[in-house]
Design goal:
heterodimer; A: 763 residues; mainly alpha; two-stranded antiparallel sheet; globular; B: 574 residues; 2 domains; two-stranded antiparallel ribbon
Chain lengths: 763, 574
C-alpha cells in the first residue's frame, strides 16, 4: 500500500464493467419506484414480481457476479498489481488557490480496487443479495406491507448501491457522497412504518445522530483537502505526497483523520454516538440485517480501514499513535458497554443490535491496534514487524467479514422467528376472535411499548422453538457461536487475533491496557448475552400458548439462512487460505504461501499451540471466558429441556441437554440482581439517551429557536422583499410588451439609436 | 486542419459538399409533387383518348393520406440531419464554392456544419412531432378536424418547414453578405407564415402579422446597413469586407452599416430591445413552431452576428478589443436581465419560455462579447487564443443543446395545446398524475434550462461562464503564477457579464421550478383530468430530447470536441 510507489493505472477486462455494480442497483431504484407507482396493487406486480422484489433480486445478483469477477481479477493480478484504478472525468476546471495559482481540478468518478475494497465489496454484494432473498419471504408475506413493498425494494437497492459505490469510489469525496446516500436510505428504511410515531422518531434519531458524525467527517475531509489539494486516493495515498505533508503538518493530519474518525463513530454506532442503533430496530427486520451486516455500520469501519496508508506511512512514523489509541479505546469502551446493556434486553432484535455495537467495537479495537503497530513498528524494513502489522490489520478485517456473515444470518433468523411468532399469534387469535380489527392489530404488534398487546419480538413470548424451527434454530446457533468466538467456528479466528493484538500493543504501550482488558472481558460478556438469547428463544419450554404454535418458515427465508450457516462454519477455510494476510497486503497473495491444508494446520497451530507463552495463555483465557464462563452462566439461568414430545435436531440435542443439566445444577435466583440499580441503569441504556435529550432541549433547542426567529424575520424578510420587488419589476417590464406592433417598432428605433450612440462613444 | 478545396458552382465536388442541402431540395420537390399525385388524365385534343398523367384528379389512397407530407418532411429533414452527423463522423473538409468570376459564395466547414446540424435537428424534431399535432381543438367549434387535416394545408406547412431549413443552411454557408441576406429572408418569410399558419385563430394571425411587421422593419434596417457596407467597400464578400475593415474600420460609414446590421440580427436572436414581437409570436404560433423560433431561428441570428462581428468587424489586433464591444455588452446585460425579469411574472408558459429564450440570447451575447474582448486574430495560434476558442465552443455547444431542452419543453406544451390550449400555467396542473413520464420530461427540461447539473443546460452554462472568466482573467493567471497579486480591478470588465449571468441564472430558477411545482403538486384544471391526447410521434421526439439533455450533460465530450473544432474552423483561414 503506502510502501509501494504511486498507484499504477491498470485497465483490466472486468474493470470497465465495475461502474455497473453501482449503476445497476441505482437504476433499479428508479425502475422499481416508478413501476411500483404505476402498477401498485396490480395482481401481476404483486404475485409475479413480488412488488419489485423480483426486479431487485436479479439486479443484486448481477452486482454480485460482477463484483466476483472483479475480485477474482484482482486476486489473480494480486502479486504484481497494487491497485486497479480507472477514472471517468466529468468536468475539468481550474480553481483559484490562495490567490496565487490556478490548479486544475477534475470532477470525475473512478473505481479504486485494493484489498480492503475487495473484502467489503464481497461482503456487501453477497449479503445484499441474500437479504434481498430473505426480504421476499419476509416482507411480501406480511399484509401490513401490502402495496408499499415497492418503496421498500426501491430504497433497499438504493441503499445497496450507496454501499457498493462507497466501497468502489476512488476518492474521499465520492466516498462521502455515497456515504450520505446511505444516510438518506437508512432514514427512509428505518422510518418505513412512518405512521408509527416510534418508527418516525427512530428514523429521525438515526439520521440526526449520524449527521453529527458527518459534520465532523466533512470538516475532516476539508482539512484533508487543504493538506493534499485533492481527495483522490491516487493523490492522498501517494507516498511522495504523504511525505510532503508529514514533513510540515503531521499534527494537522492527525486532527483531520481524527475528525473523520468521528464520522465513522457515528456511522458505526460507537460510543458516544451509538444511541441511534437500538432504535433503528423500528425498521423492518431485513433493514436491520442490511444496516447491521451488509452496509451501514461497515461503512464506518471501511472509512477507518481506508486511513491505513497514513498510519502505515514511513514518514509519519510515530506521529499518529494517539489517534490509534483513541480508535482502540472507543472500541474497547463500546465493546463492554454495549455487551452490558445487551444483558438485560428482552427484545430479540435489541439484543442483536447491542451485539452489533459490541462486535463493531471489537473491530475498531483491532483496527486501532493494527494502526498503532503500523505507526510505531519499523514494518517497512523488518520482516517480522511487517508480518505482525499485516496479521493485525487482517484480523480486524477478517472479523468484519465474520461478523457481517454471522450478524446477517442472526438478523434474518431472528426475523424468521419474529415472523413465525407473529403469524402464530395472528393465527391463534384470528380463530379465537380476540381481536376484531386486524389492521390495528398489525400496527400494535410491532410496538413493544404496549404491555397489554402482544409483542412478537420479545423473548418472553418465545422459548422452546428449537424443535419447531430447526433451520432457523441451527442458523441462530451457528451465528451466536461465531459471534461468541467458540473455537473453530466463524468469529473465533478473527476475535482471537484482535484480542492477541490488543495485548501485544499493551505490552509496548501501557495505555492500551484499557482496550485490551475491555476486549477480554467483552469476550465473556458476549458469551453470556448471546447464549442467553439463544436459550431463551429456542431451549426450555414454550413461554406461552403462541410460542407453542409456531410453525416452520418459508423457502425464501430458509435459503439465505442455509447459505450463511455454511459460510460461517467454513470460516476456517478462509483463515486457511491466508485471509488475514491477503486482506491486508499484496505481498501475500491468495493461497500463495502454502496450500489450503497446510494453511489450516498453520492456523490451528497458531491458535491453540502458540509458541509464545504469553499468547498461549492469553488464548486459553479468552477461550475460557468466551466459551465457558459466559455460556455457562447463561445456561445456568436460562437453559432447560424442550417440552414433552418435542424433539430437536440431533446436533442441537446435546446442547439443550447440557443447558438443562447446567440449569438443574447451577441455577440461582438472580431477582435481586435484576432489580438492582445497575440493571435498571442498563435497561435505561445507562441514561445516555436521556442526557442527550436534556442537552438537546436545553441548549440546542434554545439556540435553534433564536436562529429560527432570526431566520424568519431577517433572512426570510429580505428574501420576501427581493421576491416581491422582482415581481413588481417583472410587471413593469412585461407591461412594456403592449401588444401593439407600433410600440415594438418604436422600441426598435430607440434601440438602434442607443446602439449608434454607444458605437459613436467608443469610436 | 484540412486542406481547402475550391469548387465551382455545379462543378466537381459540388454535390458531395452540399449533399444535405440537395437532399432538402429533393424533399421539397417531393413535398410539392407527391401529395398531388392522383388519377388525373389528360385528353388528347379532338380524340377520346385520355392519357393518364398522374397529377390531379382523385388522389390515390396513399397520396391523400394527411400525414404523408409530414412523413416526407420528417424523413427529408431527418436524413439531412443524419447526413451531417455522418459527415462529422467521417471527418470534415473545407470546401469553398465560388462563382464563375471566382467570388466566394459558400463555405463548407466545421462551423457551418454545426449550424446545419442545429437547424436540421430542430426542424426534423418539430416536423416529426407536429405530424398529428396541428391544433385541432380550441379554435372554434365550426372548424372540423377534417378541414384542419386537409391534405393541401398540411403540405403547405411542411413545405414551409423545409424552405425554412434551406434558408437557414444558406445562412450557415454564406460567404457573401448578399447570399446570407437571401438565405435569411427565405428562412424568415417561412417562419412568418408558420407563425400565422393557424389562420382560423385570431391570436395566430395577429401574432404572425406583428412578427412580420417588426421583422420586416428589422430586415429593412439590416439591409440598409448592408447597402452602406457595399457603398463603403464596394463588395459584400466577407473576405473583402474584413480586409477593408481592418484598414479603415472605424470611419463613420462602416460603423453605421455595422450598427444597422446589428439591429437586423438583434431581432433574429430576440435581443432587447428588439425582442418585443417574440413573446407575442411564440404565444400565437403552435408550439413546435415556437420551438423552432426559439432554437433554430435563434441559432441563425447568432450565426449572423458571429459572422458579422468576428469575421467582418474583427476585433483589432492593437488593443485586442472590438469597437462594438460596449454595444454588445450592454445589449447582453439588458437582454438577459430583461428576459428573466419578464419571465418571472409570466403566467403563460409559452410566453415564459419566450422570455426565457430572450434571457438565453443574453447569455449567448455575453459569450460573444467576451470573444470580442480578445484579440480574435491571435486566436489561431498560441495559448492566448485558446480562451477565445473556448468561449466560441461554449456558445456553439449552448446553441446545440438548447435544441434538446428548449424545443423539448415546447413539444410538451404542444401536447397540452392540442388538448385545448396551453396559455395558462394552470393548464400544466396535475401533469404528473395525468402522464408521469411527460411531467418527468418537462421537469428535466426545466432544470436543464435553469442549469442544474447534470443536465446539458448546466454544462453549457458552465462552459460559457468559465470561458468568459478565462478571457477576463487573460494573462493574469500566468502573471500571478510568477508572483503577481490578484486584483479584481485588473480583470477585463466582461467579467461582470459572467457575474450577471450567475445572478440571472439564480433568478431564473424561480420560474422554471414554478412549472415543476404546478405539474407535480397542483390539481388538473377542470375538464382536463382525463388522459392526454395520444400521438406517439411527439412523445418519441420528446424522448429524444430528454435523452440528449441527460446524455450530453453527463458525457458531452464528443459534442464539445465537435464544437471546438467548429470554433477553430471559424477562425481558420481568415
Amino acid at each position: 500500500m503506502a510502501s509501494k510507489e504511486s498507484a499504477p493505472l491498470v485497465h483490466s477486462e472486468w474493470m470497465q464493467f465495475a461502474p455497473l455494480i453501482i449503476l445497476l442497483p441505482m437504476m433499479a431504484f428508479a425502475v422499481i419506484l416508478f413501476l411500483g407507482h404505476i402498477f401498485n396493487g396490480h395482481p401481476f406486480w404483486k404475485k409475479n414480481l413480488k412488488e419489485g422484489g423480483l426486479i431487485a433480486l436479479p439486479v443484486m445478483a448481477a452486482s454480485l457476479v460482477l463484483s466476483l469477477l472483479l475480485i477474482s481479477e484482482f486476486l489473480k493480478g494480486n502479486s504484481g498489481v497494487d491497485q486497479i484504478f480507472e477514472q471517468i472525468a466529468w468536468v475539468n476546471t481550474g480553481v483559484w488557490n490562495g490567490g496565487s495559482m490556478i490548479e486544475p481540478v477534475s470532477l470525475g468518478f473512478g473505481i479504486y480496487v485494493d484489498h480492503i475494497t475487495v473484502m467489503l465489496l464481497f461482503v456487501a454484494s453477497f449479503l445484499c443479495l441474500l437479504i434481498n432473498t430473505f426480504s421476499i419471504g419476509y416482507m411480501n408475506t406480511d399484509p401490513i406491507n401490502d402495496n408499499r413493498n415497492h418503496r421498500f425494494y426501491a430504497e433497499f437497492v438504493l441503499f445497496c448501491s450507496g454501499m457498493l459505490g462507497m466501497v468502489l469510489a476512488d476518492s474521499f469525496l465520492w466516498l462521502f457522497i455515497f456515504w450520505e446516500i446511505m444516510g438518506l436510505c437508512s432514514y427512509l428504511l428505518i422510518g418505513f412504518y412512518y405512521e408509527r410515531p416510534s418508527a418516525a422518531s427512530a428514523a429521525k434519531k438515526a439520521f440526526l445522530t449520524t449527521r453529527i458524525g458527518d459534520v465532523f467527517l466533512m470538516i475532516g475531509l476539508v482539512m484533508l483537502w487543504d493538506l493534499f489539494g485533492s481527495l483522490d486516493y491516487a493523490v492522498v495515498f501517494a507516498t511522495e505526497n504523504i511525505d510532503a505533508v508529514a514533513a510540515e503538518s503531521a499534527g494537522t493530519l492527525q486532527w483531520a483523520l481524527g475528525l473523520m474518525f468521528i464520522g465513522a463513530v457515528g456511522k458505526s454506532a460507537q460510543f458516544p454516538l451509538h444511541v441511534w442503533l437500538p432504535d433503528a430496530m423500528e425498521g423492518p427486520t431485513p433493514v436491520s440485517a442490511l444496516i447491521h451486516a451488509a452496509t451501514m455500520v461497515n461503512a464506518g469501519l471501511y472509512l477507518v480501514a481506508r486511513m491505513f496508508p497514513f498510519f502505515g506511512a514511513e514518514s509519519l512514523h510515530g506521529d499518529l499513535d494517539d489517534l490509534a489509541f483513541v480508535i482502540a479505546s472507543i472500541g474497547g469502551i463500546t465493546a463492554v458497554m454495549a455487551a452490558a446493556i445487551a444483558f438485560v434486553q428482552m427484545d430479540l432484535k435489541k439484543v442483536l443490535a447491542y451485539s452489533t455495537m459490541s462486535q463493531l467495537a471489537y473491530i475498531f479495537t483491532g483496527l486501532g491496534c493494527a494502526m498503532y503497530l503500523a505507526n510505531t513498528l519499523d514494518w517497512h524494513h523488518n520482516d517480522k514487524d511487517h508480518y505482525i502489522v499485516i496479521v493485525a490489520f487482517g484480523a480486524a478485517l477478517f472479523h468484519l467479514f465474520n461478523h457481517a456473515m454471522a450478524k446477517g444470518m442472526l438478523f434474518m433468523a431472528s426475523g424468521s422467528v419474529i415472523h413465525e411468532v407473529h403469524h402464530a399469534h395472528h393465527h391463534l387469535h384470528h380463530h379465537d376472535d380476540h381481536h376484531d380489527d386486524h389492521g390495528d392489530d398489525h400496527h400494535d404488534d410491532h410496538d413493544d411499548h404496549h404491555d397489554d398487546h402482544f409483542d412478537a419480538q420479545s423473548m418472553e413470548n418465545m422459548g422452546g422453538l428449537a424443535s419447531k424451527m430447526p433451520i432457523t434454530a441451527t442458523a441462530m446457533l451457528v451465528g451466536s457461536a461465531s459471534i461468541m468466538g467458540l473455537p473453530l467456528i466463524g468469529g473465533f479466528w478473527s476475535k482471537e487475533g484482535i484480542i492477541a493484538n490488543a495485548w501485544r500493543v499493551a505490552q509496548n504501550d501501557p495505555r492500551f491496557l484499557l482496550p485490551a482488558m475491555c476486549v477480554l472481558i467483552g469476550a465473556a460478556m458476549t458469551g453470556f448475552y448471546m447464549s442467553r438469547m439463544w436459550f431463551k428463544t429456542f431451549a426450555g419450554k414454550p413461554n406461552n400458548e403462541v410460542a407453542a404454535h409456531v410453525g416452520p418458515t418459508n423457502t425464501w427465508i430458509k435459503t439465505p439462512l442455509f447459505i450463511l450457516t455454511f459460510v460461517t462454519l467454513s470460516s476456517i477455510i478462509f483463515a486457511g487460505m491466508g485471509f488475514t494476510h491477503w486482506a491486508s497486503d499484496t505481498e501475500y497473495s491468495f493461497l500463495s504461501e502454502r496450500n489450503l491444508l497446510d494453511g489450516i494446520i498453520y492456523e490451528m497451530d497458531h491458535a491453540f499451540a502458540n509458541s509464545d507463552i504469553f499468547f498461549f495463555i492469553l488464548t486459553y483465557i479468552a477461550i475460557f471466558m468466551g466459551a465457558i464462563v459466559g455460556p455457562g452462566l447463561a445456561m445456568a439461568l436460562y437453559g432447560g429441556k424442550l417440552a414433552e414430545g418435542e424433539e430437536a435436531k440431533p446436533w442441537m440435542r446435546p446442547i439443550i441437554a447440557l443447558s438443562a443439566w447446567f440449569n438443574d445444577r447451577f441455577h440461582f435466583d438472580n431477582t435481586a440482581l435484576r432489580e438492582s440499580t445497575l440493571a435498571t441503569a442498563l435497561e435505561n441504556r445507562l441514561y445516555i439517551d436521556e442526557y442527550y435529550d436534556k442537552a438537546m432541549i436545553n441548549i440546542v433547542a434554545g439556540f435553534s429557536n433564536k436562529v429560527a426567529e432570526t431566520d424568519a424575520e431577517v433572512i426570510d424578510g429580505t428574501i420576501k422583499a427581493i421576491e416581491s420587488g422582482s415581481q413588481s419589476l417583472s410587471t413593469i417590464v412585461r407591461s412594456m410588451t403592449t401588444g401593439s406592433a407600433r410600440d415594438y417598432i418604436l422600441m426598435v428605433a430607440v434601440g438602434t439609436l442607443a446602439l449608434f450612440l454607444l458605437i459613436w462613444g467608443v469610436a | 486542419m484540412s486542406e481547402t478545396t475550391t469548387v465551382e458552382a455545379f462543378g466537381d465536388g459540388f454535390i458531395s459538399a452540399l449533399c444535405p442541402e440537395l437532399m432538402l431540395f429533393a424533399g421539397l420537390l417531393l413535398l410539392i409533387i407527391v401529395p398531388n399525385l392522383g388519377r388525373g388524365t389528360f385528353r388528347i385534343r379532338g380524340t377520346q383518348i385520355r392519357v393518364p398523367w398522374l397529377l390531379g384528379g382523385s388522389r390515390f389512397k396513399i397520396t391523400s393520406d394527411p400525414r404523408l407530407p409530414a412523413w416526407i418532411a420528417s424523413i427529408t429533414l431527418g436524413s439531412a440531419f443524419l447526413n451531417v452527423v455522418y459527415i462529422f463522423s467521417q471527418g470534415l473538409e473545407r470546401v469553398v464554392i465560388v462563382s464563375e468570376s471566382g467570388k466566394e459564395l459558400l463555405l463548407v466547414n466545421g462551423f457551418s456544419r454545426v449550424f446545419e446540424m442545429i437547424f436540421f435537428g430542430a426542424l426534423a424534431l418539430a416536423a416529426f412531432s407536429s405530424m398529428n399535432r396541428l391544433q385541432v381543438k380550441g379554435i372554434g367549434a365550426h372548424v372540423s378536424e377534417h378541414e384542419l387535416y386537409n391534405n393541401r394545408r398540411q403540405a403547405d406547412f411542411y413545405i414551409l418547414m423545409v424552405t425554412c431549413a434551406l434558408g437557414m443552411s444558406v445562412v450557415a454557408l454564406a460567404q457573401d453578405l448578399f447570399v446570407l441576406f437571401i438565405g435569411l429572408e427565405l428562412a424568415s418569410f417561412s417562419t412568418y407564415v408558420l407563425v400565422a399558419f393557424l389562420k382560423e385563430s385570431k391570436v395566430g394571425v395577429e401574432s404572425g402579422m406583428k412578427y412580420f411587421i417588426v421583422g420586416s422593419v428589422a430586415s429593412g434596417v439590416g439591409l440598409y446597413g448592408l447597402s452602406m457596407l457595399y457603398l463603403w467597400a464596394g463588395s459584400l464578400q466577407f473576405s473583402v469586407l474584413s480586409v477593408a475593415f481592418a484598414e479603415s474600420g472605424t470611419t463613420a460609414l462602416p460603423l453605421i452599416g455595422i450598427g444597422f446590421v446589428l439591429v437586423g440580427f438583434g431581432f433574429k436572436v430576440s435581443a432587447a430591445p428588439f425582442h418585443f414581437a417574440a413573446p407575442d409570436a411564440y404565444a400565437g404560433a403552435i408550439s413546435p413552431v415556437a420551438g423552432v423560433l426559439a432554437t433554430a431561428s435563434k441559432a441563425m441570428g447568432m450565426l449572423g452576428l458571429v459572422r458579422m462581428l468576428l469575421i467582418v468587424a474583427a476585433p483589432e489586433s492593437s488593443d485586442g478589443s472590438a469597437v462594438w464591444l460596449a454595444c454588445l455588452g450592454a445589449m447582453a446585460a439588458i437582454t438577459m436581465t430583461w428576459g428573466n425579469l419578464a419571465a418571472l411574472g409570466s403566467d403563460n408558459p409559452k410566453r415564459m419560455l419566450a422570455y426565457s429564450s430572450v434571457a438565453h440570447a443574453g447569455y449567448m451575447l455575453a459569450a460573444l462579447t467576451a470573444v470580442g474582448a480578445w484579440n480574435w486574430d491571435a486566436a489561431v495560434s498560441g495559448d492566448a487564443g485558446a480562451a477565445a476558442v473556448a468561449v466560441m465552443t461554449a456558445l456553439l455547444f449552448h446553441l446545440v443543446v438548447l435544441v434538446a431542452f428548449k424545443l423539448g419543453a415546447f413539444l410538451v406544451l404542444s401536447i397540452l395545446e392540442s388538448e385545448g390550449g396551453a396559455s395558462r400555467l394552470s393548464s400544466l396542473g396535475g401533469l404528473a398524475k395525468r402522464e408521469p413520464l411527460l411531467a418527468v420530461a418537462m421537469f428535466i427540461f426545466m432544470i436543464s434550462l435553469a442549469g442544474v447539473p447534470p443536465m446539458a443546460g448546466f454544462l453549457s452554462k458552465l462552459l460559457v461562464i468559465m470561458g468568459i472568466v478565462r478571457i477576463a482573467v487573460g494573462d493574469m493567471g500566468a502573471e500571478i503564477a510568477d508572483g503577481g497579486v490578484f486584483v479584481l480591478a485588473d480583470m477585463h470588465w466582461v467579467w461582470w457579464l459572467a457575474f450577471l449571468m450567475v445572478i440571472n441564472s439564480a433568478i431564473s430558477v424561480f420560474y422554471y421550478l414554478r412549472v415543476v411545482v404546478v405539474m407535480f403538486f397542483d390539481e388538473p384544471e377542470e375538464g382536463r383530468e382525463g388522459p392526454l391526447p395520444s400521438g406517439w410521434q411527439v412523445r418519441l421526439a420528446i424522448l429524444a430530447c430528454v435523452l440528449t439533455t441527460v446524455f450530453v450533460g453527463i458525457a458531452g465530450d464528443a459534442l464539445i470536441r465537435i464544437c471546438e473544432m467548429a470554433a477553430q474552423s471559424l477562425n481558420y483561414g481568415w
